[in-house]
Amino acid sequence: MSFSGKFQLENQEGFVPFMKAIGLPDDLIEKGKDIKSVSEIEQNGDSFKVTITTGSKVMVHSFTIGQECEVETMTGEKVKATVMKEGNKLKTNLKGIESVTELVDDNTIVHTMTLGSIVFKRTSKRVS
């Protein structure tokens, strides 16, 4: 299965506790909790370009499986990370946050971020 496509957020669990734990200000948490972000994924072999649009904020991450890259966290900090692929999962670790993006089926992506005991889970459905 290819990750390529455009996916819109359907639902999320654990948003507020996770955002508080990573230090996002309350006003941004309040503004962001109901926004339906859109993720556009372009996969070409082991190379990926992921564009995430949340309201007026756009983040673009380009990476190649197994190679170190720089990504922007939700707090705006730029960190080095290496993305690994295990079956239909993309895994990385961002400053202690375990990030797993799983292509559950052709039309569903589940992105789970774990910080200690706090889990933030986002389910997105293919729109094109």
UniProtKB/TrEMBL annotation:
Entry-linked Gene3D superfamilies: 2.40.128.20
Keywords: Cytoplasm, Lipid-binding, Transport
Main location, first listed in the record: cytoplasm
GO MF terms held by the record: fatty acid binding
Domain notes from UniProt: Forms a beta-barrel structure that accommodates hydrophobic ligands in its interior.
Function in brief: Binds free fatty acids and their coenzyme A derivatives, bilirubin, and some other small molecules in the cytoplasm. Involved in intracellular lipid transport.
The name this protein goes by in its record: Fatty acid-binding protein, liver
